[in-house]
């Protein structure tokens, strides 16, 4: 696991009625680890909370990380703490950028689709494609103007279509048509609420898109953790066998046994706990692995996935 870095919050700006933009820098100044478009960082908050946020800007030599945090009233507490308690000058431990939503910069055409706060990684991608002079279109849908972030800037771009839901006279966001109309060799990216992402994946299948040209980033857990029955895990490196009882995840059993494993979100969306599977058949419940990767059963997210076989042998 990459070492955490301590960053100081240097600026808070209002992004929309319920979203703030936060800027973090090194306390002593200087460059931060490089960021690829689509990457996120993990903030380590009080009480053991960790939350992942996509970075608004990518680059090799950034002096600041910018994120957007929407206040979620039904959240597990992370966004509320950030909005209510985090203030300029406070320091946080931050895990360096990770990226499960990489941009294919060589694509002949890129179609970017964002719903609500899902604009954050998409915005970084759009900037990168503009800088490279690559052809792309961006479709950004939000419920209302007061919910939208980055609206002033994006509305100036000629290849950006912004749909404001409450100004659309009830017409739904034409996701299937937008995906269907894209060039056959386009790489298509979508980030937004789970329902939108599922519709996006369905639109890709309906228009016979190659799965490796369809890219999604889930912010929320897509499936329940697999905790409905007992199975055994064998840890090949430490030559240990453990029982995972019904009601517990592999990660919980590993932590109870004092075995170190990297993790962050604990709900299958960040990829921090990805573990190599030596044998056995996982019951994949994460929101990261592609269908092909699930079929291959070479790795699994131990925070949420379980076992279809009686035993899993893991490279731990
Ligand atoms: S800890 Fe985030 S995917 Fe497992």
CATH topology tier name of the largest domain: Rossmann fold
Q: What value does the Rg take, in angstroms?
A: 20 Å
Mean pLDDT: 94
Secondary structure: helix percent = 10-25%
The strand line-up of the biggest sheet is: 4-3-6-1-2-5
The total count of strands amounts to 18
Span of the ends, CA to CA: 14 Å
Total DSSP helices: 7
Q: Quickly name the level 1 CATH class of the largest domain.
A: Alpha Beta
Overall number of structural domains: 3
- Low-confidence stretches are none
The structural class is alpha/beta
Find the CATH superfamily of the largest domain: Nucleotide-binding domain of ferredoxin-NADP reductase (FNR) module
CATH architecture of the largest domain: 3-Layer(aba) Sandwich
Helix-strand topology string: EEEEEHEEHEHEHEHEEEHEEHEEE
Ligand names: FE2/S2 (inorganic) cluster
Question: Biggest β-sheet: count, sense, barrel?
Answer: 6 strands, antiparallel
Overall spatial form: globular
Residue fraction in strands: 25-35%
Organism: Croceibacterium atlanticum
InterPro entries: 2Fe-2S_ferredoxin-like_sf, 2Fe-2S_ferredoxin-type, 2Fe2S_fd_BS, Beta-grasp_dom_sf, DmmA-like_N, FAD-bd_FR_type, FNR_nucleotide-bd, MRET
GO molecular function: 2 iron, 2 sulfur cluster binding; dioxygenase activity; metal ion binding
Protein name: Phenoxybenzoate dioxygenase subunit beta
